[in-house]
Amino acid sequence: MRIIQHQLAIGTRHATPYYVIRGSIPGDTLVITAGIHGNERASILAAYRLLSNLKQGSLCLRRGTLVLVPIVNRSAYRRGIRGVPDLNRTFPRTKGQKASHSLSAAMFRLAANMKARWYIDLHEANGLSKVNRRFLGQTLIACPGSSEVPAVRRVVRRVNRSIASRRKQFSIRLSTLPGSGRHAAKHVLKAKAITVETCWSLPVVTRVRDQSRVIRNLLNEAGML
């Protein structure tokens, strides 16, 4: 297993590190992004926990290539804000359309150049989805009719077994969000694209744990561990 650090949007004010981890057996490429919104702390911490586990050898990538971007929107992260404009509305909406922000353009170009077959976008949201369906906290989101939906259902089922309180368990949402990284990955790159949302009202240690469990299960679904 090899881990190599690179720079996204190198030479610009948006420059941010990303990591390419290659398993010993060739396989699909899976992209994980976090920090699209700079104030979604647990997603970023979970991404760095994954990187640390890989570096220390407590987790080993067996097959394929993982592209990990722990903080996409570094300027928003430094300010502790969601980001202006909201970067998750600036990705290409259709094939042939360009991203409307230089950073989302660089992120999308990376995913395209790496021929991403999976695209996992880590986020956080308000409220518990099991308490009120209007809330997105504790959800895995995929596009309707997508081939990844069975995998999402299996992951939610497995992760929920480790969460004693039903109200804090994950739900599945099927929806589109034009302009998001997930929508662009699905509809332009034809990748299996999933958004992970933990709930802000839970303790940060719980949110990082839940994000980490979801990530590990998705890596298993992709046949990479």
From TrEMBL:
Give the molecular function GO annotations: hydrolase activity, acting on ester bonds; metal ion binding
Question: What Pfam families does this protein's entry cite?
Answer: AstE_AspA_cat
Q: Would you say which domain of life the source belongs to?
A: Bacteria
- Cofactors that this protein relies on: Zn(2+)
Keywords in alphabetical order, please: Hydrolase, Metal-binding, Zinc
Q: Which Gene3D superfamilies match?
A: Zn peptidases
Q: Which InterPro entries match?
A: AstE_AspA_cat, N-alpha-Ac-DABA_deacetylase
Location of the Succinylglutamate desuccinylase/Aspartoacylase catalytic domain: 26-126
Name of this protein: Deacylase
